[in-house]
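#structure-requests
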Amino acid sequence: MVLADLDASSRGGRGGAPPTDGSGGRTGSGTGGSAGAAIVLEPGAITWRSSFDIGDLSEWDRDPQFVGSGITLVDSPTRSGAFAAQFEVGPGDDPITNDDERAELIRTPFEGEGTSSYWAWSTFFPSDFVAATGAHQWTILVHWVADGDLYPDCRPPLVVDIDPADGQSLRLLTRGGTPVVSGGSCTTTTTGRFVLEPIVRNRWYDFFLWVVWSADPAVGRVRLFLDGREVVPETAVATLYSGSQVSPKLGLYRSPASTTTRVIHDELRHGSESPEGF
């Protein structure tokens, strides 16, 4: 059920229909994979956590990007604790007037060249979740964006999204190096594209990502686990634009569409050390 609609002054906020599928608690719900298992991989030396259990969005230090009440706290389904965050986007929900649609949280940049970090979070796809398909379409769940002042029009260097080739499969994208910025446009190089597996609705997915941020493909690294299974092995790849830092963004960001859709995220954690035995 929807717990609360949060206005901008509370750093949150779209009521919409409450989620009626799934159940609370770390046992997850639905079928498929190992979603019902406890989270196996946990970042070491936790430096930041966004669990939403404090009842607002103040764990994120920059203004959220949403229209109306596009971000709500819900008490079911949750992955852990009392609350999760629902992100809902409808036609024309363009809070920063750039012709795209989004409901997202963002934090100040804090990682750059050479930093090794570990990220974990959980995502729930309701039965009515719909993703974009076709050329030049996107549905982004989590991404790390480069400094806006340095590379204002560049695509994010690290993305977890839904592959628009089928509108069903999870995907990891990496970009890096030195973009070509000219006349308000930015040309980047996609350094890695990893298609994972089709999503199953009405269940939680637990992500664990290791990334070494670097514009040098010999230095940068990614490794991704899904529900405790390695789905992207350690891969050398550029993950950063030259001279930049990155900000994490969590929520739902898509190309313009005629439908309304939503996704639920919970328990984002960042650590500076690897789990035991990683």
